[in-house]
Amino acid sequence: MHAASPLLLSSVAAAPRALAHAIVRADMSDPKKVIAELQVAFEEFKSEHDKSLKAKVDDVVINEKVDRINAVISDLQKACDDLALKIAAEKAGPGSIIGDLPPTSPEAVSAFKAHMRKGEVSAALTKSSDAEGGYLAPIEWDRTITSKLKRISKIREFARVVSITGAGFKKYFNDRAVGSGWVGETASRPATTTPQLGALEFTPGELYANPAISMQLLQDAAIDLEQWLSDEVEVEFARQEGIAFLSGDGINKPHGILTYVTGAANAARHPWGAIEVTNSGQAAALTGDGFIDLMYSLPSEFAADAKLYINRLSVGATRKLKDGQGNYLWQPSYVAGEPSTLNGAPIVEVPGMPGVAANNIVALYGDMAQTYLVIDRIGIFVLRDPFTNKPFVHFYTTKRVGGGVFNPEPMRALKVAA
């Protein structure tokens, strides 16, 4: 059961009287009510924003009202998205998440807890003595963390993910520069150009976590150690991956997608060139024309699965944008499970994307699955170490991940510039 968030309630309480009749304290567990209030709020937002555009002078009261309604819309849209995820999970059931410990397999759960507390392993797995450290991580642990990382990291969720068993991954590229020409029946046939091959290597970097638990706590705690440690590692690994997939420099980590944009550090790394840039149209602001130019600069072959990758604050700024006919480009999602859109493109909120400021790459638009490659070296390894820092037991956890652009053509970038 979801309760209304403090941010949402404070935003509603601070909203002007004109909005009070439209937005009430929602039952955040009822998708229909949340969607209905989202629709009312957006209509109120458009009305107040139109008033601010028609005002001959800058009206501070109206502008403040617009900003407050905008904040309420963001909270309602997020609540709607969260409910959709909850509904989908409930429909799928606990057994649908790949790698979860089966609820009907108490032996697997008991074996894992025994290993985490004392280094013991059930007879179904390889035995190790305490002197050797019991260096073993059950498969269920590995796969559970991987699946959760996919849900948390938005770049990982929409990118192409390849699992490898070796030390690295190499991708070959064909420039299709074969020549041809028309000739007469008896004319000579001179040599034509031959396609050239290029290669990129994706070498995984290593993520690690080294949490420690006292021996007495391991012996006495009546908690789900598997869930506790999984959650801790999940959050930190997801945070580090999210940063690297966007802006990683490639040194012991992935090459971030933003580093392949024209003018960035890896603009010349790919044989086919950099991710092309479209300017917003203003030196320090977003414009409707800028987004339209961005979307139509993408070849139609990649448009079917294209999405807009942008941070939440920038989404708030896009709600004020209109097309040439006065229609708002941003539209909320009134269907549970469907994202809000901008000019018809689904919006994916990526917290690490730069905000609206001069010369920032504020948004990416394109098919992420055909653009960015995530390389997973199979296996998350847990080393149980009760010796290094007695009386603490360390759970040294590592995961090797690489990444980079394998095709810049299906993606475009929006730069805040005139």
TrEMBL record:
This is Phage major capsid protein. It holds the Pfam family Phage_capsid. It is found in: Virion. Residues 133-415 form the Phage capsid-like C-terminal domain. Its main location: virion. InterPro entries: Phage_capsid, Phage_capsid-like_C.
